[in-house]
Write a structure and sequence with these properties.
Blueprint lengths: L1 E9 L4 H9 L3 H9 L3 E8 L2 E8 L4 H10 L1 H11 L2 E2 L11 E2 L8
Antiparallel strand pairs: 1-3, 1-4, 1-5, 2-3
Amino acid sequence: MIRIGRTARLKPDGLEGYQRLHTAVWPQIKEVLKKAGIRNYSIFCADGLLFSYYEVEERNLGQIEKMWAENQICAEWEAEADRFREPWNPQTSQDIWKDMEPVFYLE
């Protein structure tokens, strides 16, 4: 099992909308995540920074991005979520999420 941590930034007024979106995650999104083998998925927020954590089997890691990129519902979800997030590099709309390096783990 691989543990994935990622971070993103919210727009200054984006927290309420982002929370509202995630209180009613679309069933199709949940289905894609489960099909990709994602487990224990959580998103936290502090001071405008989002932290997401999930676990996935190593063999599924490459499939996740492919499944997400090829699914129209996922594209619509990302567009909706992007209304509340801002890119790390303001000159581009890419790089919303940054992968984090693991530092410590206690089982």
